[in-house]
Every structure is written in C-alpha cells, then in structure tokens.
Amino acid sequence: xxxxxHKTDKPVLKQIEEKGFKxxxxxxxxxxxxxxxxxxxxxxxxxLLFDTDLPIYFDPEAQLKFINHSCKVVFFTFWNNYxxxxxxxxxxxxxxxxxxxxxxxxxxxxxxxxxxxxxxRIIELSQTVNxxxxxxxxxxxxxxxxxxxxxxxxxxxxAIQLLDLSIKKINIIIGSLYPHEETLLKYLSGFRxxxxxxKQTNKMAEIMSESDMAICAGGLTLWELALFNIPTAIITxxxxxxxxxxxxxxMGLGYHLGSIKSLxxxxxxQKITKFVGSxxxxxxxxxxxxxxxxxxxxxxxxxxxxxxxxD
Length: 311
Known about the structure:
The protein has 311 residues and is α/β, with parallel strands linked by helices. The chain contains 12 helices and 14 strands. It has 2 domains: 2-117 and 294-309, 3-Layer(aba) Sandwich (Rossmann fold), CATH 3.40.50; 120-291, Rossmann fold. It is 38% helix and 19% strand. The protein has a 6-stranded parallel beta sheet, with helices on both faces. It has a 4-stranded parallel beta sheet with strand order 3-4-6-8, sandwiched between helices. It has a two-stranded parallel ribbon with strand order 1-2. The longest helix has 14 residues, at 296-309. The protein is globular, with a radius of gyration of 21 Å.
C-alpha cells in the first residue's frame, strides 16, 4: 500500500511509517499528479482509494482518467451530489441509506453503518463494557477531533463550569492540530472539577471505556462511543456535522445540542443539564449501537480485494 499525500500532520506520517507503508507527497492536489505517480508505480497501484472532499477528484473526467490507467477506483465519501464512475463508493453514515447516488452501472454502493471502520482495540474493549443508568455522570469525555478550530472544547468546559454536578473526572482529548491549547490550559487552571487533558492520545479506547457520558462533534468518535453504549451529546460546526446530527436527532439515533455558531455558554449549559442522566440520552445511543456492524472494515476489505480478483 502507498499513501499519496499533499499535506498532513506528523502523527499521521508516524502511524504510516510504523505500519511499514510507503508514502509519497504530491506536489499539488491534482488528478494529473496522481496519474504521474501511477506511471512510476504501476505494478503497485492497482486500486486508488480516495478519502477527500476536494471536488477535483469527483469530476467524472478525472475518475475516468484513473480508470483508463488500469486502476480500480474506490471513494470513501459523504456526498451524493456527484456522478460516480468509481467501482466502489462507501458512506458509513446512516444518513446515506435514504439518499440517491448517481453512479455507473458497475458501481457497488456500500452504504450505511454496516460499513463502519473501527480499530481492533475499540471493538475489543467495547465488548467488555456495560454502561449502567446514571442519575448523574461520574466521568465525562469531551472530544472534538484533531483541530477543533471553533474551540468547542473550551466552550463546553465553560458551560460545564456553570453546572453543579457530582463529577468524578472530566477527560478532555485534543488533537495535534488543536490551536487553542494555551488558552484552554490557562482556563483549566481555575476549573472546579477534576480533569485530565490528553493530546493526540493512542489510548482512546481505554479513555472511552471508563466514561459514563460524552460530548463530541458527531464524526467517527460518535460511532465509537455508540459501540461502548455511552450516552453522547453532539455539538456541530461544519455542514457535514449538521446534516448528520440533524438526521440522527430526527430518527431518534442521536442527541444534538446544536451548532456551536449559535450556542452561548449559558444555553449550552442548560442543554447539557437536560442531557445529563436523561432517559432519552440512553435510548438514542442504544438505538444507534443496534444499527452498527463493528466488523464493517472486514466487509470493505473483502469487496476491495474482490475488485482485483475479477480483472
């Protein structure tokens, strides 16, 4: 396997190297640069897997160029507003089950939570944890991904500061690209509750396993928390997050507190108060867990391997 990268952070490169995979930096984001790499590594690049939101790769002409260079094309995607000539498209989001996708006749569509990808440690630990019903949580997990540019982390902490709860501990996870670390740590120096801050941790599964409640952005972390059956509230920021969280909330599969753009600390505090220990919070995450196939990556791997078996 070869990873084709334009820009990324050091922890990602470290993970790639530790797994023994090659990586190549593209000069720019363009189909032409990828085709140039295909020419150099033709025997190693039989299948192209795209995990991107950049429109240039969704252009049917670009997809056709890859296919004409004897490559099978696979898209991990969220969007259904493109024409796909790819051999496989994958969207693990439950929202995708009600969407129409415009594809070639040969395109295989792997849609919905049967195709979620989890690491083995998440799967292993989630099978040993049994979250009980709590009147109030004892340990809260807060995680908003690798960068959290709008700083939902700090606003959530400030909202919790306004609450009077019997909290044993708050675990705060920030990513390597989080730009507000100094401000966060300064605020936490006067925080009323015990807390831990983990930066770019590889102990995510263990931290989840000791949590009674969580607040997150609604991406992969939400699905992981669902495997643990941990009542989880979602605070959104991007269009993708809003679409997902609104859908899950309507379907009774998620608990959406709202967009960070419109929530004041006081409003967020009030919503967290309603969420904490609520029956609805426990029921929504349990329903979401029932939708998820923890072995989705095996299904995906088999489908991708089958592409090259039927040349």
